[in-house]
Each structure stands twice: as C-alpha cells, then as structure tokens.
Amino acid sequence: MDIKAKKETVKIVIIGHVDHGKSTLIGRLLLETNSLPKGKIEEIKKISRTLGKDTELAYLADQLREERVRSATIDTTQIFFKTRKKKFVIIDTPGHVEFLKNMITGASLAQAAVLVVDANEGVMEQTRRHAFIASMLGIDKIVIAFNKMDIVGYEEKIFDKVKNELSIFLEDLDVRPLFMVPVSAREGVNISRRSQKTIWYKGPSLTEALESLKSDREAVKKPLRFPVQDIYEIGREKIIVGKVASGVIKKRQGVIFLPSFKGAKIKDIRIFKKYGKRKASSGENIGLVLDRSFPVKRGEVIIQADDPRKSVNSFKGNIFWMSEEPLRVNKTITLRCATQEVECIAEKIEKRINTSTFDLIEKDAIELKLNEAGVVVFRTEKPVVIEKFSFIEELGRFVIERGYDLQGAGVIL
Amino acid sequence: MTYLDELENKTIYIIREAYARFKNIGLLWSIGKDSTSLLWIIRKAFFGKIPFPVIHIDTGFKFKEISEFRDKYSEQWGLDLIISRNEKALKREMNPEKGRFECCNALKTEALKITLKERNLKALLLAIRRDEHGIRAKERYFSPRAIDFKWNYQDQPPELWDLYKSKIEAEQHFRVHPMLHWTELDIWRYIQRERMPIVGLYLAKKGKRYRSIGCERCCTSIKSNAGSIKKIVGELEVTKIAERSGRSQDKENSYTMQKLRSLGYM
Fold first, then answer.
1. Average predicted confidence (pLDDT) for chain A
2. Quick one: which H or E segment has residue A136?
3. By CA distance, what is A397's nearest residue in B?
4. Which of A55, A80, A328, B260 could form a disulfide with A48 if both were Cys (CB 3.0 to 4.6 A apart)?
5. Could you give the CA distance from residue A228 to residue A299 in angstroms, rounded to a whole number?
6. Which residues contact A235 (CB under 8 A, 6 or more apart)?
7. Choosing among B154, B163, B240, which should be mutated to test the A contact, i.e. which has the most A CBs within 10 A?
8. Between residues 16 and 45 of chain B, which touch chain A (CB distance below 8 Å)?
C-alpha cells in the first residue's frame, strides 16, 4: 500500500527588481488561495502596529526582523500554497544586487519562474539580470506578472508598452514567457480571478496561468549515468552507493567505470529491506554490488559497457560569476559536477558578458568579475565526465569553488 | 517513483553526502516524529547499521514516554546513543521559570555544544523542516555554524542543485538538514506507509494529543480525537492551525525563535 500525492507540487521562484512587489504578490497569493494558517493575519497586523507601518501582505515572506525594518527581503524562504488543481512551493527571492548569491540559490530549485515587473517603472536592471539568470539556470517556464497596474489606472496602453519593452529583451535571451498577466498584488486584481478592472485583458489570471504549467517528465530513455557517491563496507561486501542520474541500471548489466575504464557486471541492486530489485532508474538512490572486486572511488561515473561516452580534460561552459574575487585565466580553481571534484583552470574566457544589458564586454578576457557571465573554456587536471545540460542535467551543470566558498555556477550548452 | 519516494530519495542523497564529506557526524534525535523519521531513513541509507552516534539532548523535563521510546528503540536498532546533558545548568536548577529563552539556551543549545566538542563532530544532522516556522524556512540543506555556534543568517552560502557547500574552517561545524523539503503532512503519510513506531504522545487520549513535542513543561496539547495515525493524517489534511502553536518558546516573543537560532538552537 503506497500513498500517492493527491496533487502534483510545482516549485516556483518569484524574481524581479526590488520593490516591484514580489513579496506583496506572494502575500496576496496566500491570502486568496486561503493558504494562511489561522492567526497569521492577526499576527502581522499586530506587528505592523508596533513598527508603525501599514499592514503589508509582504510581511508574510519577510520573517527576519531586519527585513521588517528595511522593508525588503534578504534571504530565500519556501512557502506553500495550493489551488484546486495544484500544490505550489514558492521560493521568494530578494531583489538587491548584494544578495544575488542568495537569489541564485532560490532560483536553482525551481521548475518555473514568475518574473514581477512594475508596470509603472518598467524593465529595470534587476529585471534583466534575473531573467537572464533564470534562463542560464535552465528555467524555461516563465510567467510575467506586470504588477502595480493600480498605479497606472489599469490602462491597456501602458501594459502593452511595458510588455513590448520586456519582449524585446527576452527575445535576445532566447526566453519565451508562457504568459504575461497584468496584476495588482495590493488590490488583488487578476491574481486568482480575472477582474473587470482589466476588461480588455483576455488571458488567464495569475493562478490560472500557474495551474497550467506542466511538470517535467523524468529522463528514462537516456543512457545510464551513475556518479559514485560513496562506498560502504557492510559485512564483507562492498556496496557502491549513489543516485542514478539518468537512464536505467539493471542486474547482470555490463558496465564501465569512467575515467578508469575498469569493467564489471552488476551482481546486485540494493535498497534496504527491498528484495529482488532487478533495476533502478533516474532519481533512485541505491547500492550496487559488483561481480568483481577492484578499487572504486567517489566521483567515478558508471556507464553501460557499450556506451561510447568518453571522459574529457577540457570543455566549454556558460558561467555566472558570484564572487567578489574575479575569475582569472590560468588560476587554479576547483570544479564540482555531480560527485566529481577536480582542480582546473579557466584556460580561456571567450566572452565576457554584462548581465544587466546582456552586452558583450569583451572577447578573450583575462578575468570575469562579480555578477558577470562568460563563455569559458576549462581545462581539468584529471579527466571528467560531462554532458550537455539539455541532455543530462546532472552532468551538465557545475560549480566552481575556491577554498571554502562557492564562486561560480555554470551549465554546459 | 511516488511523491513520498521522491522526498525519501532526496533525503537519502543528502545524508550520504554529509557522511561522505564529513565522516565524523552525528544525528540529533529528539524522539519526535521528524527526527525519528530521519533516523528511519538514515537506517535505510546505511543498510541497517548507522555508522555514527545518535544524540539525545536530555533536559530533564522530557516526558517519560520519550525516554521509554528512546531506550527501547536504541537497543533494537543497535544505535550508538549519546545522552547529552548540561549537568552544570541542571545542578543550578535551570528551568523555564527563569525564562524560556534562557532555559532552552542552557539546557539544549549549551548541552549540544558540550557533546559536539567531546566527540569532535564535524556535522550534525537535524530533522528541521521549512514549513515548521518562518525562520526555519530560510535554512539551507548544508548550513555552516561558526565556532561559537552562531548562525549568520544574513550571509548564507548559496546552494545550487545538489552541490552542497562542505568545506569549512577546522573550528566550525555544519548543520545538515535532510528533511527541509518535507511538510508535516508528508511526515505523517510516510510514518503511515512505513508502519513506523512513534511516541504515543502524538495519538489522542481522552480528547487530547500533542501535535509537536518538546519538554513537558512547555508543551500544550490540542483538542483532538485522532487516536491513530490514519486519523492524524485525516485531521491534518483539513487543519489551518499552525503545527507549533502549542510550543511556548515560539509564542513568547515573535523573535525568540530567531534569537535562539542565531545562537545555535535547532
């Protein structure tokens, strides 16, 4: 007997310029879908009185004291709400440039993004940057919420103007938004239901748009990729543990370990208290027992024996740099991809890109600075197994570390 | 994979990752439903025998049902159990009348610091979830703590995909939160599916039960007739009352939880 989830959960990140109303929008979504725990509204009103501000729905997402005083979000929060058709997890994100690294973390867990744009102010630096980062991180489902329509009198002309401005920019990025919705988070217009105030608008409300988003299917027909996470010695057996990144692994299957190229057959697939497991597919965390014994290390990748995939010492990736210390050509850094961890250098920075204008700053750069993006050729000290991000996500995304900190993130296109 | 399988798989990955990167780790087990679920999953991750210690912080105020459950299952599951107590504070008769903040800090947080040092643990596994409390919602899966246990919530490391931050200065330690993505309802559904043993305090007796348990003095029960796990699941599917509404340290002052956490509380 197993209990399936009654509704799918869709993970959404809300992005956009600070003060364009992201947190207020979240508060409004929670209110209108009846997802607030009892007592929350009273608590917020009480706190607002103490701080001398008007009750703002945005306080729901702003749990940290500093945020209430400063009236802007600092860090990411996960908030749950549900409509009749679907369950959502909303990851609120901050808008200030200084908290960009936190924003990246929020965005990286999402399947879809809601980009909030102030219809009165139009497309700003953060709007451009966030849309770019979302597309860089492979979030291809984007819904645009043109907020604060109340301030511009719900005028169709203004909506069209801002819509066009954004469309032109997004086209450059190769981002196709699924919906563009005129809303007012403050007044609750077009959030769950279409409003008479925008009678000229024929599209769905924001929640209707969100409900229509489909979640992705698992990668089942892709080739086997199993990055070794660890090796446990239990009894006298060696059990290799990890998560199947793509494809299927089967009992009695012939496999090869990259980069060592050692071969073996799968003797057994282990899951605690599950017996007779013949195969495992993408997403399953399992143990493997081989028919032979040889040293296996974390970071090796198991593939099917007849798979022509080879490991490489060099590859090209699109990266976003998140550290104050710039990325410099030929300076040693650490690359992490799935369970692989190797030293490497940026051999060439082919393009250096300004992420707010999306302008090419220069070609063949010697460094990438904070918040810049780049097309970089990496050379690794030891061979690695990588894939295109669009083909096998787990092996198509990587981070760069130096010392103790995460400094850059990238995808292989 | 079902929805619960997905949650479980993600948790197993994080647990194994923590062990692979830090080796010298420990699980904080409050004997509650969340940490018992985490313990259950850890047993799965290591195929039955957990290769690191399981820590129970004993404040002296815990319900007796808790110690009974703890002793029974630590033996049955062959756990390396550490009972962590702040003996000095207990001798000085620390209790919630001296202030809930002071009591939680002394009997829980300080006790934990002592144990961490004694066993030289590099990382702690905790079963906190994002939907429990606003301040916990801001947590990361791998969260560094400074040498004095302080949590720098304004400057948290980014966490991308499943590549978690894991290198720190020698004196720091990590908090690892493999259950962040589970909701209260998910936990109960999982307990139901797995037929997991759970402390009886959660089940209704004479019209009352505990939805969240901590020390006996600072927990209040709720009205409920849910005397079985199936009924608890049914009750949760419709409720709008927050899980921790019976926990005094959450009520006292809106920022108590935040203050406590910034000093190293769970």
1. 82
2. helix A125-136
3. B161
4. A55
5. 5
6. none
7. B163
8. 16-17, 19-20, 43-45
Closest CA in chain B for residue A102: B158
Chain A: give the shortest CA distance to residue B241, in Å: 5
Q: How far is A327 from chain B (nearest CA, A)?
A: 17
Lowest mean pLDDT among A161-170, A281-290, B7-16: A161-170
Which of B140, B88, B147 lies closest to B117 in space, CA to CA? B147
Contact A47 B160 (CB under 8 A): no
* Statement: residue A71 has pLDDT above 50: no
B252 to chain A, any CB pair closer than 8 A? The answer is: no
**Contacts with A47 (C-beta within 8 Å, 6 or more apart), sequence order:** A59, A68, B254
Per-residue pLDDT of chain B (266 residues; tens, 9 = 90+): 889 999 999 999 999 999 998 899 999 998 999 999 999 999 999 999 999 999 998 877 778 889 899 999 999 999 999 998 888 877 777 777 777 777 777 777 788 888 888 888 999 999 989 887 766 666 778 887 765 666 666 666 656 666 666 665 555 788 899 999 899 999 999 999 999 999 998 998 888 888 878 776 677 788 888 889 999 898 888 876 667 766 766 655 555 666 666 666 66
What CA dihedral angle connects B217, B223, B227 and B230, to 10 degrees?
Answer: -110
SS3 readout for chain A: CCCCCCCCEEEEEEEECCCCCHHHHHHHHHHHCCCCCCCHHHHHHHHHHHHCCCCCHHHHCCCCHHHHHHCCCCCCEEEEEECCCCEEEEEECCCCHHHHHHHHHHHCCCCEEEEEEECCCCCCHHHHHHHHHHHHCCCCEEEEEEECCCCCCCCHHHHHHHHHHHHHHHHHHCCCCCEEEECECCCCECCCCCCHHHCCCCCCCHHHHHHCCCCCCCCCCCCCEEEEEEEEEECCEEEEEEECCECEEECCCEEEEECCCCEEEEEEEEECCECCCCEEECCCEEEEEECCCCCCCCCCEEEECCCCCCCEEEEEEEEEECCCCCEEECCEEEEEECCEEEEEEEEEEEEEEECCCCCEEEEEECEECCCEEEEEEEEEEEEECCCCCCCCHHHCEEEEEECCEEEEEEECC
For chains A and B, CB pairs below 8 A equal 139
User: CA-CA distance, A271 to A290, in Å (whole number)?
Assistant: 15
Please enumerate in sequence order all residues whose Cβ is within 8 A of that of A175, keeping only pairs 6 or more positions apart, or say none: A131, A134, A135, A140, A142
How far from A51 is each of A47, A54, A56, A374, B240, CA to CA, in Å?
Answer: 6, 9, 12, 44, 27
Contact (Cβ atoms closer than 8 angstroms) between residue B180 and residue B162: no
The 10s digit of each residue's pLDDT in A361-386 is 899 999 999 988 888 999 999 999 99
Q: Are A213 and A178 in contact (CB under 8 A)?
A: yes
The structure tokens listed for B104 are 């939680």
Enter the ipTM.
Answer: 0.84
Specify the CATH superfamily of domain B3-183+251-262: HUPs (3.40.50.620)
- B245 contacts on A by Cβ (under 8 Å): 39
Q: What predicted TM-score, i.e. pTM, was given to this entire model?
A: 0.74
Domain ranges of chain B: 3-183+251-262, 185-248
DSSP secondary structure letter of residue A274 = B
